[in-house]
Design goal:
The protein is mostly helical and 154 residues long. The protein folds into two domains: 3-72, no CATH class; 101-153, no CATH class. The protein has six helices and no strands. It has helices spanning 3-14, 19-28, 33-72, 101-105, 110-122, 133-153. Helix 5 (110-122) crosses helix 6 (133-153).
Amino acid sequence: MNEDLKKYVRNELKNRVSPRALRYNLINAGWPEEDVDDALRAAKSGNSKGILVLGMIIGVVTISVALLIALTSPGEPPSIPPPPNNGNNITTQPPPNLEGVDECKGIIDSIEKHYCYLDLAVDGIDCKALNDTVEKGFCYRALESYFISLMNSA
């Protein structure tokens, strides 16, 4: 097989010329069909070897990095032991402030409900302790309004 033809085919394939168009042009230019097909096969097999080698290198690097991470990771962090119970069953946090929430829950008008929660925000209501998501939304909006008013008055 002609080495010049092989180099030409390899170069054209690297320049993204389609193998079909390359074959058509070479045969129309007078190259024997068998030589053209052999040059195309040789160029394609050379490309696949390079891709195979690259794939193997990437695979080895990926596995090496995974092993390195697995072998150097510290594992589970130690768990914090619970505090000693002296028999008094006293919790370390005070109960949430939900005083007045039942009154706000009973209000249907959204503006009145907002002002009800705004009054509770001044008293330090704990919105996280509410179970109803709608009531929790009103509570957080009221807290937001309260904090904005504090910032604007400063």
